[in-house]
Design brief:
The chain is mainly beta and 180 residues long. The protein has helices spanning 45-50, 66-72, 121-126, 131-134; strands at residues 2-9, 20-21, 24-27, 31-32, 60-64, 87-90, 102-105, 109-116, 135-137, 143-145, 149-155, 157-159, 164-168. It has 4 helices and 13 strands. The mean pLDDT is 95.
Length: 180
């Protein structure tokens, strides 16, 4: 399975959206250089409130551009960076990847998939009704989260739009992604 980076985004301040950039630099063990969510321990406000010493499993947020097309069909205009992601992808089913998958981004950077983004009420404040588009329930009543995946940086490097994405699945058995 492979794909392409379409957009990269970062923000040094707390805000829901992240401005698009020409490139971002991933730092091993930390996240996106200059991004408010970079660090060894949690940086998301809700996680800090629970326990500020827990490891940061949400260093880099990736989201699939196909989601934007899906929500556009329901009347929502969402663009790369709008949902706070760092990397927007195309051509790879991020949500189907098992935990521990390595994603090779461009020439150098490698991130390890840690889990699913848990969509929060900020999405609803961004566009009323959007939360129901990115989180719901399947036929068995299980929660389905579609707002991207989270990862940690294993190998640093520069990531740019147009960079290829390669995948390396972990040794089996594969673990389904859970929220992180």
């Amino acid at each position: 399975m492979s794909g392409t980076v379409t957009t990269v985004s970062s923000n040094g301040e707390y805000s829901f959206t992240k401005p698009n950039r020409d490139s971002i630099t991933l730092l091993a063990g930390l996240g996106v250089e200059g991004d408010i969510h970079a660090g060894v321990t949690v940086k998301h406000r809700s996680r800090i409130a629970q326990d500020p010493t827990q490891p940061n499993l949400r260093q880099v947020h990736l989201i699939h551009a196909e989601l934007f097309d899906e929500v556009a069909g329901a009347g929502f205009d969402v663009a790369p960076g709008d949902l706070g992601e760092n990397i927007t992808t195309v051509g790879i089913d991020l949500l189907a990847l098992p935990a521990g998958t390595l994603l090779r981004l461009g020439d150098e950077a490698v991130v390890e998939v840690t889990g699913l983004r848990n969509p929060c009420l900020q999405i609803e404040a961004f566009r009323q009704g959007l939360l129901k588009q990115v989180v719901g329930r399947d036929a068995d009543g299980e929660v389905v989260r579609k707002a991207g995946i989270m990862s940690v940086v294993r190998t640093g490097g520069v990531v740019r739009p147009g960079d290829p994405i390669g995948t390396e699945l972990p040794a089996g058995p594969h673990r389904r992604l859970e929220r992180v």
